[in-house]
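Quick one, probably user error.
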């Protein structure tokens, strides 16, 4: 299996694990070097991975113990030139 196929497979398995149990999926992704323990790394994964359950993502990222991840997630979004109504709609997780 090529390296990019292997990486894609790890990413898909990590996303599936996250959709079942977020902490298990995160641990799997850390063990395979997809993400680090840095909040920005997890926020980037959450923002850029299309296979994640959006409702579960919203529930996870808004937990009090995930405040730093939420901050990183928010900082990665570009709201310049966007009305407040549209900005809020960007966070429809479900």
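Nope, works fine. Designed sequence:
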């Amino acid at each position: 299996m090529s390296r990019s196929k292997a990486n894609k497979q790890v990413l898909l398995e990590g996303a599936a694990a996250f959709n079942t149990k977020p902490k298990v999926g995160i641990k799997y992704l850390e063990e395979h070097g997809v993400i680090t323990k840095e909040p920005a790394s997890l926020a980037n994964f959450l923002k850029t991975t299309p296979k994640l359950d959006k409702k579960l993502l919203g529930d996870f990222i808004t937990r009090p113990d995930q405040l730093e991840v939420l901050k990183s997630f928010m900082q990665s979004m570009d709201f310049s030139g966007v009305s407040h109504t549209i900005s809020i709609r960007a966070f429809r997780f479900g």
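The chain has a mean pLDDT of 86.
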